Structures are given as structure tokens and as C-alpha cells.
Amino acid sequence: MTVHSFTTETAECEKFAPAPDRLVSGSPAGETRNAYESADGRKFFGEWSCAEGAWRVSYSEWEYCRILEGSARLTGDDGSVVEVGPGGNLVIEPGFEGVWENLTPVRKLYVIDLGNAGEGRPD
Predict the structure, then answer these.
(1) Is residue 64 part of a domain?
(2) Average pLDDT for residues 32-37, to the nearest whole number?
């Protein structure tokens, strides 16, 4: 059995912003600090932060999130609405499509499993 210990503070910082065609409102730019990538490139752990705003999402991967700061609302194309704040947990299943909206700036930890969703790092 292999056990790993990580710190996101020293992980490389990658800046991002949603693609213009996915932007719904605001200017949700942020950064990702990916602290772990499995040998097969299909599992990831890190920290993500992003400013207020909303953008369309389409998940082909499985993701667990622990919200450290801020609040967000996920609105599914099926009409479902989930709001989460500090200390809240989310599991997002492959196939979720809708809008991710940061009601305030958000900082979260994430674990992503690409499963059979595709190759390479998540965006």
C-alpha cells in the first residue's frame, strides 16, 4: 500500500478563466494548485480558488470538493439546485451539466477521478 502526504501551498500555481463561450456572468478567474497526480494521470488532488461569477460546466469526471472559503451554487440543467458554503462537501458525478456560480470568491480542496472520462489533466 502506498500513502502520500501533500501540501497545496508549494504546488505549482496555474491561472485559469472559463472559456468565453461558457461564461454566464462576472469575471470568474482563479488558480489551481494541483498537488497530486496519479501515475496513470487519472486521479488528482489539489486546491482551487476562483472569484465571483458563473459559467457553464459539463462533467465527464467524478469530483469531490471540500469548500474552505466562500459560497457557491450549482444549478443543473435538470433544474436541481445545490448551495454550499464553508465546511460543505460536494460530490459531482459524471454527466452533471449546468451552471457553477460562485456567490462569493471560493476556495476548495478537490479530488478528481477521470475514470474512463478521457485523458490528461482536468481544467
Answers:
(1) yes
(2) 95
